């Protein structure tokens, strides 16, 4: 097994230097929102999503310029979602990646605008010719990211379910409900990361389907691991407020199944994710190690 944690950390360091170049600051008073955008994107994070874009794209020998641009767009959109999730009207959190959340560092109105700015900037980045020479590929990436972020089957829909999911939901429906929440809220952007590598690499149907199975499984495993860390994690390592799910009476795999069963579910998902990559042989070694890291991580 590769030292995937070290590989991810090295990628994150390089990616942080790369994405900082996307945030030139204007001279006028609008500078404040650009500062808030940059603060939210460049203040750390695991960078798993752009790393996943990079590793899936490498299966097809895609150029770094292409997969880094897609990773930057994805990280902008992901950061927008974190800014809005942390707002008082949503999860009402003061801490993100070990630092004050955007609305605490700046103010609530600026945070809302910074989120809006990052959301739209993601599509501006994808639309540029440097992302892909073929306009059809750029359009496909834009469409997939819009669907993944959206209100019908994407992240916004998952957040809506998460806000209103109650433990009073009939027991027969709770398992399917939490699967839908976790597939759409967290899993959807991880799925896009794999879709993006597949699209950039012009994957075959078999290769694309394998990556989608992998993505669905690691997406749910990632959220289950997050739910477990919310209960058992070290706040200094995790970098955000813990024990929020129980305090807000949220429906999660942990609240539904308990920690041990939730962990067992995540382990099975990771094994299924690894199996799905057999079509790529040894080329997918880091992706398999990444799946394992997702449930072994401490933050």
Mean of residue pLDDT values: 91
Total count of strands: 2
**Widest sheet: strand ordering:** 1-2
Computed Rg? 18 Å
Number of helices: 16
Largest sheet: 2 strands, antiparallel
Which descriptors would you attach to this protein?
single chain; 299 residues; mainly alpha; two-stranded antiparallel ribbon; 16 helices; 2 strands; 71% helix; 1% strand
Structure description:
This protein is an all-alpha fold and 299 residues long. Helix content is 71%, strand content 1%. The protein has 16 helices and 2 strands. The protein is globular, with a radius of gyration of 18 Å.
In short:
The chain contains 16 helices and two strands.
Task: Give the SSE map.
Blueprint: H1 4-19, H2 31-42, H3 48-58, H4 64-86, E1 95-96, E2 99-100, H5 102-105, H6 108-127, H7 135-149, H8 155-164, H9 171-185, H10 187-200, H11 205-232, H12 235-238, H13 244-247, H14 253-257, H15 259-276, H16 285-296
Antiparallel strand pairs: 1-2
Helix pairs in contact: 2-6, 3-4, 3-10, 4-6, 4-10, 7-10, 8-9, 10-11, 11-15, 11-16, 15-16
């Amino acid at each position: 097994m590769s030292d995937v944690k070290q590989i991810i950390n090295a990628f994150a360091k390089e990616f942080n230097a790369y994405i900082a170049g996307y945030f030139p600051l204007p001279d006028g008073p609008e500078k404040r929102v650009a500062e808030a955008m940059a603060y939210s994107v460049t203040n750390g994070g695991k960078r798993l999503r752009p790393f996943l874009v990079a590793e899936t794209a490498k299966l097809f020998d895609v150029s770094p310029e292409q997969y880094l641009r897609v990773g930057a767009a994805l990280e902008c959109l992901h950061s927008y979602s974190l800014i809005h999730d942390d707002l008082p009207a949503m999860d009402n959190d003061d801490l993100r990646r070990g630092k004050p959340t955007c609305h605490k560092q700046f103010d609530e109105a600026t945070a809302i605008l910074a989120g809006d700015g990052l959301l739209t900037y993601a599509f501006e980045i994808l639309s540029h010719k440097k992302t892909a020479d073929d306009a059809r590929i750029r359009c496909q990436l834009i469409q997939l990211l819009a669907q993944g972020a959206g209100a019908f089957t994407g992240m916004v829909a998952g957040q809506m379910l998460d806000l209103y999911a109650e433990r009073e939901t009939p027991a027969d429906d709770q398992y399917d409900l939490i699967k839908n929440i976790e597939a759409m809220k967290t899993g959807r952007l991880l799925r896009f990361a794999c879709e993006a590598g597949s699209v950039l690499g012009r994957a075959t149907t078999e290769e694309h389907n394998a990556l989608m199975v992998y993505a669905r499984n690691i997406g749910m495993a990632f959220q289950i691991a997050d739910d477990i860390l919310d209960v058992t994690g070290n706040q200094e390592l995790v970098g955000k407020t813990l024990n929020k799910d129980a305090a807000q009476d949220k429906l999660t795999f942990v609240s539904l199944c308990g920690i041990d069963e939730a962990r067992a579910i995540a382990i099975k998902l990771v094994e299924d994710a690894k199996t799905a990559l057999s079509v790529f042989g040894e080329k997918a070694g880091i992706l398999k190690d990444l799946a394992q890291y997702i449930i072994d991580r401490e933050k």
